[in-house]
Amino acid sequence: MSSTITTPLPANIDAGTLIATLHTHDTMIKALCPGLISYEFVSGDKNSEATYSVTDKKSMGQTTYKLTLTNVNDGIDSLVNAKPPVGTLTISAKWRVVKGELVEEVEIDGNFMMKKMAKGNVEKTHPEQHARLLEMAKA
Fold this sequence. Notes:
alpha+beta, 7-stranded antiparallel sheet, 3 helices, 7 strands, 31% helix, 47% strand
């Protein structure tokens, strides 16, 4: 199951600044996890590819999952591996800065119920994540 979220860049944020923001893993984690309780570095290199253990508050309660962030030339890849009580869930996203836009392509894998719930959550919350990232890029 896939979704694409696109947000135009404001005139005061250039592509290079936004890419540098995406490459800052601490910033990405805070933008992706509005209910962030805690996170810790697990393995890798924080300047290229790293895995974190993230504890986040969701509508269904507190959840802990693995998040891998991989810096690429024009953005970042994110991979969530979660094991909620009703099965496993994998959400992979490619965040790219392309032609004056932040484009996020999301792939969701899990059982039917998890995919449907995750897709609804992605379509609802990821535009807000884009807005937070753009605000963080201005700072």
